[in-house]
Amino acid sequence: MKKILIVGATSTIACACARRWAIEQSEFFLVARDESKLLQTCADLEARGASRVIPWVMDLGNIDAQTIMLEQCLAVMQSVDICLIAYGSLPNQHECERSVESAMAEFANNGSSVIALLTRLASLMIVQRCGTLAVISSVAGDRGRPSNYVYGAAKAAVSTFCEGLRARLFKLGVHVITIKPGFVDTPMTRGLALPAFLVAQPEAVARRIVAGIERKVSVLYVPAFWALFMCLIRALPQSLFKRLNL
Questions:
Q1: Which element (helix H / strand E) includes 52?
Q2: Is residue 126 part of a domain?
Q3: Which residues, 6 or more positions from 61, have their beta carbon under 8 angstroms from its beta carbon?
Q4: Burial 61-88 (b: 16+ CB within 10 A, else e)
């Protein structure tokens, strides 16, 4: 039986992952900002076989509230086998270009608040000397594209932080996996003009994430073809890249 902490537990991808773990009678501590959705998620996981589900309502961007949440999680569960960080927002790039406040708020939500949480979780995991930190970043962090570079910059910061953290914690028995989804059929992407073949279904994404965590993969592109696609994007010279409308 796994003890699992999910921050951003009501996100589509997090819910799909949790349902797979619930079948194994895992124990959950679920953190989200929307109480109504969180309670619905708890009930769904209990119906699917979860041994225990504890909800915790919190503003995920509130860095100061992270300490109390983690203290409560440990008080209830004693230890954490897997922590999945799955929250974030897709900002309006044009609004971020017009407003410093909007740009900084989105960077904080997608970047610095995640880094703060990882720093606190690392201290927790070091005491345990075991466990997995699974962080949902994005392929958007692999290169700064004009259409979403505020979001991409935040995800790039998270991915780089995870790379260093992974090397640090490896020596202490703790694994860090950086998960880089492409386009997934979620409320975040609905309404965007996206080619259907590029949009993955949450259940397929969750299946790959859960398997990747089990295998202790370091960096996981979801679906797998994004690894090759982003390799090609990164290889484009600046002289060409800056002329493209990506």
A1: strand 52-57
A2: yes
A3: 108, 109, 113
A4: bebeebeebbeebbeebeebbbbbbbbb
- Closest among 179, 185, 217 to 199, alpha carbons compared: 185
**Whose structure tokens read 């537990």?**
9
User: Is residue 218 in some structural domain?
Assistant: yes
Quote the number of domains for the chain. 1
> For the whole prediction, is pTM greater than 0.90?
yes
Mean pLDDT on 105-123: 97
Residue 180: domain span? 3-241
Q: Tell me, yes or no, whether 246 lies in a domain.
A: no
In a domain, 82, yes or no: yes
pLDDT digits (tens, 9 = 90+) for 32-70: 999 999 999 999 999 999 999 999 999 998 999 999 999
State the CATH number of the domain containing residue 183. 3.40.50.720
Q: Which one, of 6, 79, 83, 80, lies nearest residue 42 by Cα?
A: 6
